[in-house]
User: Fold these one by one.
Assistant:
Number 1:
Amino acid sequence: MSTISKTDATYVMGHSAGEEVRLQKLGQLLYPSTRYLFEKAGIVPGMKVLDVGSGAGDVTLLLAELVGPTGSIVGLDVYPAVLEVARVRVRAAGLNNITFIAGDIRNVSLDDHFDAVVGRNVLMYVADPAEVLRICADLLRPGGVMAFQEVEWSITERVDSMPSVAPLVQQAATWMIGGFRQARAEMQMGFKFPGIFLDAGLPLPQISLDGIAGTEADWVGYDFLADALCDILPKLREYGILAEDLDATTYIKRMREEIIQQHSLFPMFFMAGAWIRKA
């Protein structure tokens, strides 16, 4: 999902040549949290699922594990190029129960009702999240499941400012969070989930909150953050958040050494999940 409406947030990460690699590393980081959310929400074998904002296919491939060969998945994203990456990954996995459609959930035509509709890091970019949830609910059969997961930036910002967090982590968090805020992304989606679901005419959702953090030297979070810093740099400069030159790889190497020396925790971000079952 991204900047279709004039009032949507800017997709601050941009679309670099290596975007799909960054997204796959993010998928590794979020896999346990997202899988837990979908299992709690009730996604089971045999379901037909719509993955909104499917990107490079990480959530789609996770869903394939849950629905099995008797289920099916439709991935939807506004960027055709990233869907080509997802198709390659699906073919490499030998799966034939997944299809991808290029389009925006707000104006694409989808024929069938689904057993579940899910999305990850989608709603924080759209101008009217309740509108998106209403549309998704209309695509659900009675008894169907809806589950969305979003970064809760306000908690991430508070935790990353704690004195026990390594200074270079604090600095990187200030840059990244500043970029998302300047791009008008929703910074408190987790806390706003209940009101947004009610505004969409849906019941109050069940909520989960997971922290994504690491301590080990080979944690994939370091590689992800290096890629993320590279991708967000043009916007950080455009917004006046970061003026000096930055070698992201060197910066992350220094950060890793700092965390190891201080026996510190690297809190990447916090993920809020919300789910309901349609009456």
Number 2:
Amino acid sequence: MKLTPLALLACVLARGAAAAELERHFDTATIERLGRDLYEQDRRAAIAAELVADNFDPEAERLVGFITSGDARHLRVRFVRDTDQGHQAAIDAVFDELLLPALERAAQPTLDAAELAQVAARLAVARDAATRCNGRYNTVALPDPDGDGLLVYALAASDDPAAVMVGGHVRYSVSADGRTIEHAEPLATSCAIAPLVDLERAARSDGAEGLALRTTLSNTPLETHVFLSLNQDLPLFVVGNDLRMWRVEAGRMQVVREAPGEKP
């Protein structure tokens, strides 16, 4: 039987690992919020990193990464250096209602306990993610909605602008001190890459043609689907474990088909 493109990616995403539901599930509102927060933090961190690279010499500054604090509109991206005395604050990119940040040297180098915890958590996640898929990952750290720890996401990236990494993303639950990865949960069962043109075709056809994404890990889309939709500025169509089809768009998600065979 020849598979249509719409069915094909569903099969690819269901292959590659034994299907098993996630250990941690969130309600729809929390999934939507986490996805929006992933997008807003990731894009601002990318802007900050580019500006720092344009205005400073990262090697001379001994920069080894960044941490974040605040919300999307008032986000501080703090670039950290490695020294003989440990990790220290080096350069701050401060977003204050604007998409472009103000750059300034950190007022004082000492990192507080929460900042040191985030450094440790991001480094631990980066080490683990380097062994997965193509090893190209960005990290995003968010407060854990169920406790005082962190959710650190390893977001798989593609170097091909015509392709989207729809697989490979991982969610890490990390202790409050940043030292212990309590859970590492892949948010897809493969390292699937989707041609952007086929996702755009699905968007144009309102889910009737092109590529739909399939997850066997949850009955609902995941926060990474919300992130990807925002990042690509496209509605995505996601089929959950119970075979309902969801439309994910503009940071929200809704069921558009209750059962296979129905038109979205």
